[in-house]
Amino acid sequence: MLLRYVKFLSDKYSKSNIRDCVITVPGFFGYKERLAIHQSAEIAGLTVLGIINENLGAAIQYGLEKKFNKTENIIFYNMGSSYTQASLVTYKTTEEINKATNKTFDYNTITVKKFITIR
């Protein structure tokens, strides 16, 4: 019901029909919990493109539009009421040349080096 309501709100405020989603879950969710979330999303009329843990979602958002001059290591720390998570993430911006257009473009590489959950 919650995902159906989220879809309703998304459709209403974006003025379009939302079909695809990426869902974040706590890092300690196992296969069965992730499967239940996936099935719930399908019942709500959503196509799940991916299920990722919360810290990875924060890491992607952080590095989405930044340009890193060198390799940078960042720690994402999430202290909840029942668990604590920490992720060590490495960012690197790489520049490549498109051979067809001879233009350069940048892309970021995000690597999760270590992820721990303490309950």
How would you describe the overall organization of this protein?
By secondary structure, this protein is of the alpha+beta class. The protein has a single domain, classed as Nucleotidyltransferase, domain 5 (2-Layer Sandwich), CATH 3.30.420. The chain is built from 3 helices and 5 strands; from the N terminus they run H-E-H-E-H-E-E-E. It has helices spanning 2-14, 31-43, 54-63, and strands spanning 20-25, 47-53, 72-79, 84-98, 103-118. The chain is flat.
What structural category do the secondary elements indicate?
A: alpha+beta
CATH class reads Alpha Beta
The succession of helices and strands, N to C, reads: HEHEHEEE
CATH topology: Nucleotidyltransferase, domain 5
> Main beta sheet, described?
3 strands, antiparallel
Please tell me what the overall shape is.
flat
Total strands: 5
Distance between the termini: 28 Å
- The average pLDDT is 92
Summed up, the helix count is 3
Strand content: 35-45%
Helix content: 25-40%
Point out poorly predicted stretches: none
